[in-house]
Amino acid sequence: MNYLKALTLFLLLPSFSWAQNATVSGTIRDNQNGETLIGATVQATGLGKGNASNEYGFYSLTLPEGTDSLELRFAYIGYQTLLLKVLPKGAVKLDVQLVPVGAILEEVVIKANALDEKRKSTEMSVSTISTKEVKALPALFGETDIIKILQLKPGITPGSEGTTGLFVRGGNNDQNLIVLDEAVVYNANHLFGFFSTFNSDAVKDLKVYKGGFPAQYGGRLSSVIDVRMKEGNNKKISGTGGIGLISSRLTLEGPIQKDKSSFIISGRRTYADIITEAVNRSNADDPEYNKIPRYFFYDLNTKVNFTLSPKDRLFLSGYFGRDVFTFKDPTFDFRFDWGNATGTARWNHVFGPTLFANTTFTYSDYRYKIQNQIQGFSFELGSNVMDANTKVDFYWQPNNTHTVRFGANGTYHDFVTARLQAGSDDGKIRFEAGRAYDGWESGAYIADEWAKNRLKLNYGLRLSMWQNNPAFYLNAEPRVAANFEANKRLSLKASYARMNQYVHLLASSGLSLPTDIWYPSTEGVKPQISDQIAVGSSYLFGDQILVTWEAWYKWMQNTVDFKDGAELFGNNDLENELAIGRAYAYSPLELEIEKKEGRLTGWIGYTLAWVRRGKFPEIDNGEWFAPRHDTRHNLSVVALWDAKKWKKRGKDKSLQLTATFVYTSGYPAWLPSGRASFIDFPGAQPQFVVPLYGPRNTFRYPAYTRTDVGIVYKWKNKKGMENDLTLSVYNATDRRNPYFITIAVETETTAVGEVPFEIRAKQVSLFPILPSLTWNFKF
Amino acid sequence: MKSIHIQNLIVITAIALLASCNLTKDVEIDLPDYARQPVVECYLEPGKPFRLLLTRSYAFFDTLGLSSNFLQNALLDGAFVTISYNGQTDTLKNQLTLVPNPIKVFNYVGENMVPGTPGTQFDLYIRLQDGGEIRARSSMLPVVPIDSIQVEFSEELDSLARMLTYITDDQSQENFYRRILNYSSLDSFPDQDFLVTDRFSQTASIAFGTGYELKVGDTVFNSIFHVTRDYYDFKESVDLAVIGNLNPFAQPSPIKSNVSGTANPVGIFTVLVYDRDTTIISK
Predict the structure, then answer these.
(1) Three-class SS of residue A155?
(2) What sign results for the dihedral spanned by CA atoms A120, A122, A127, A133?
(3) Which of A69, A206, A247, A466 has the most CB atoms around its CB within 10 Å?
């Protein structure tokens, strides 16, 4: 740790310039509901000094001490800019509340230029998604999903249609650190990945890092997806909800003690099972009737927060979600359920005008269980991963030149992999399998953002450690990002980051399935390592359009794959099924054109990229191959147009038109190249067409194109209740996109049995045109 | 234990539904070039002649070997085939043989019967007309007999019964079994067919069951094959290859063969040992 101390001193030495300075600090919030605002800017007009609120809404600005008042400008996109005068003397505590420009008929005059702030930031390879965007855009079955909107950002591909898979800059689906209020969500999916676990009514915003990772993050190679739950309205009781095609949602929030504490509770549940159960009941007397299995999923988010003192805030939040699939008849009782539970306790403390601390305890649990009871016999199979994590983060801004972040965390991981218990009730027959592991993961980091004239530099170091007796790994992860403001419109950026990943998802397919197993690093399975370098530029056209170009190269070591024909279930020696290799990905062109203001908003994203995996001794003789998420061209266009606003019989009304367009080059696929026939055992049916698979992924599907459109009709009644009807049309052109190609074999009866007479390739599409209507309300 | 196939069933059902929604269509695709390989299948059955099927694989869309040409174009004739055991070597004649009930086809047949002594080691050698060679080895395992069969009628479903088949497993070593049930005849599609390992069994007794689906008068052909690890791996890989073509979520698998040589073959050479019971369901 000595060199961490040395680095600390090195980072902080330039900051000890104790000139006569004043510091203005406080919290920036929404004045309607008291929610803290992340990334709101504060600027001393005329001095060219400014800063932004951190992820807890805290800001700090150092000013030269004086006897004249200075004007401070507080701004945030979607809010009216606030100008305040302060006397810069000593430590000034200044909490501010911004007024949202949310009323339907008001002209939207947004002063904050979020795009310019983004251009000036050292952060690169970052996207932020607001729930406002998410709710307006067309969605599959009308289920708005923040993760699926994320897939429309450049550098991110879904892997398969309709799913919430995230393959970020060539990384695998398990290389994303998804945190909800700082607690890791291990499987952020429902229904085999078709919906994410994030109920957009409960989510405040989402930020994704695709590269240039800040030092406070670690543990995954390819992205950090930071999801923040709403805190709850501390001004008045309010609610939101919606009734959609497959689920309904309801959220209630309000003050526990006005302006001091608040709560929010939000739930979502699908209801197809209510219908199927009714159908089953109505056919209960029909002996020929085949009962429909029951399936549903639900989410519950809760959060309370308390302002304990002017310097202390306490947050408690939790998430619980489950998917449940059951089938029961007199002799057969089958249940398959899976889901996440997370809990967060967070304490914000302001030590002084320049030092802010956040201490967090989190708990995460993901598990699946398959149970079956057949008279006299039972079967149970399950896996789970549990984390208990403590971390402390400090945010110190000694002056406007330096913003220092430092902290540490420790996580205890507990894994149970593929635990099987089966046998007879009398105990005469018993099968058991499965292993338990644990591991300690910890990290310590320090980083400084240094700004001088037109150059901003964010440099830091993270030390990460993993212990899983007898395995022990200690790794240094340097991080650096720079922004050079070439002129008032153009910024040049560069970054480098190393990441280590100590837990690995053993997924038998490209999709996220509930039965995928999380597996720890051991002596045999070393931590995955990635290095990523990126360069880019941002150019602001006018004050409304930001064009960002990035080029990146990422290389990864110790990546995990399966040997051919690996057995995942009921296997006590999973390591024997794994292959360890390498991967790399690069893009000379990752382009995003964003427009966040005006009646027409949205973005265009394009990525030209290559991804390769290889050097697995047991796969294709170590040759490099293209993984399924290697798609050459990815284009997405997202548009939201505020078409019309009017007033009728005292009711405010508006109409918004939305559309998304996606083009993706064909996915690689592993199709058979040959076929063989096997007569098999006596009593077994001969198999005349057994596919013979050669090297992996030598075939590419046709390109994928989809257009979705939506109409959002909003109205506010006289009592102030806001309503909207959202019509979503998924795949509006009814295009048959390839989801899967299967080889169909037609057979005929001959003297030697059923033999093939025709073999054809069939393309299977998943979704035709799918309109859906959702009613949302807010009171 | 055998892999859980619930997801596969769900997916295959979903694909059938998609087909009914007009979401499937024929497409022309170009697959990579493929060099045909010899395919060996040889199950030595004690007390029966040495028999082997030697065929060739096809490029996936090759129209050769379809329909009436199936057998004619698949068979790989003219090879020199020997099987050595107990210090002697038998040469198998290239002779097409159809064995009825159930129908099985062989194109190399020996004159001697397969000895029935567990532990006997068999070595296969094949030299093709083009000079390519194939070799394989397998040993005979002991039969694991069926200890008992219980037929139990459901209290809720009065007329339906299930059948429980018990064996005693040798826990001193890892064993692999294939269980095949045929409800009407051995020529029918199996009503149950799976592989299992005793790797996780905590008891010597192992039971194989059925659902409550048997009626009085039903005939059940109940076969427990004691198979080698090589065969278990081969059959698992065949199943995965078939499922991989049907299920977009499944990882396809190349065939894990126990035949090797310069001819680049695929296939299996093993000894078949099994116990079979025929039960007629009665109350």
Answers:
(1) coil
(2) negative
(3) A466
In A353-380, which positions are buried (b, 16+ CB within 10 angstroms) versus exposed (e)? Answer: bbbbbbebbbbbbbbbbbbbbbbebebe
Closest chain B residue by Cα to residue A563: B253
CB contact under 8 A, B221 and A759: no
Q: Evaluate whether A279 touches A291 at the Cβ level (below 8 Å).
A: no
Q: How far is CA A696 from the centre of its chain?
A: 29
What ipTM was reported for this prediction?
0.89
What are B165-211's pLDDT values in tens digits?
Answer: 999 999 999 999 999 998 878 777 788 899 999 988 889 999 988 88
Per DSSP, the residues of A346-413 read EEEEEEETTEEEEEEEEEEEEEEEEEEEETTEEEEEEEEEEEEEEEEEEEE-SSSSEEEEEEEEEEEE
Q: In the A/B pair of chains, how many CB contacts fall below 8 A?
A: 261
Residue type, A664: T
B264 touches chain A (CB under 8 A): no
Report whether B122 contacts B272 (CB < 8 A): no
Surface-to-core class of residue B155, CB atoms within 10 Å of its CB (0-12 exposed, 13-18 middle, 19+ buried): exposed
Would you tell me which residues 112-151 of chain B have a C-beta closer than 8 angstroms to some C-beta of chain A? Answer: none
Burial (Cβ within 10 Å: 0-12, 13-18, ≥19) of residue A603: buried
Element containing residue A280 per DSSP (H, E): helix A272-282
Task: Output helix, strand, coil percentages for chain B, rounded to the nearest 5.
Answer: 15, 45, 40
Stretches where chain B sits below pLDDT 50 are 1-6
Within chain B, all domains assigned CATH 2.60.40 are found at: 146-226+275-280
**What number of other Cβ atoms are within 10 A of residue A284's Cβ?**
8
Q: Are A323 and A513 in contact (CB under 8 A)?
A: no
CA distances (Å), origin A765, targets A420, A671, A741, B24 = 36, 17, 9, 6
A523-572: pLDDT as tens digits: 999 999 999 999 999 999 987 899 999 999 999 999 998 888 787 776 77
In chain A, what are the domains?
Answer: 2-111 (2.60.40.1120), 229-598+607-621 (2.40.170.20)
**Cβ of A433 and B200 within 8 Å?**
yes
Give CATH for domain B146-226+275-280. Answer: 2.60.40
CA angle A432, A436, A441 (to 5 degrees): 165
- Helix then strand count (H, E) for chain A reads 5, 47
Residue B1 sits at the chain A interface (C-beta within 8 Å): yes
Residues 6+ apart with CB under 8 A from A335: A324, A325, A326, A369, A370, A371, A372
Take residue A34 and report the two structure tokens written for it: 């008291």
In angstroms, how far apart are the furthest CA atoms of chain B? Answer: 65
Strand, helix or coil for residue B107: strand
Q: What's the rounded Cα separation, in Å, for the pair A216 and A218?
A: 7
- How far is A554 from A778, CA to CA, in rounded Å? 44
Give the Cα separation of B31 and B59 in Å (integer): 9
| Chain A residues whose beta carbon lies within 8 Å of the beta carbon of residue B32 | 673, 694-695, 698-699
**Residue A731, phi-psi category: left (phi > 0), alpha (psi -120 to 50), beta (remainder):** left
> Could you tell me the two tokens for B59?
């490029």
Q: Are B50 and B110 in contact (CB under 8 A)?
A: yes
From the list A12, A56, A100, the residue with the least C-alpha distance to A349 is: A56
Amino acid at A607: T
Whether A335 and A324 have beta carbons less than 8 Å apart is answered as yes
pTM for this model (two decimals): 0.88
Residue type, A369: K
Are the C-beta atoms of A633 and A609 separated by less than 8 Å? no
- Crossing angle between the packed helical segments B6-20 and B229-246, to the nearest 10 degrees: 30
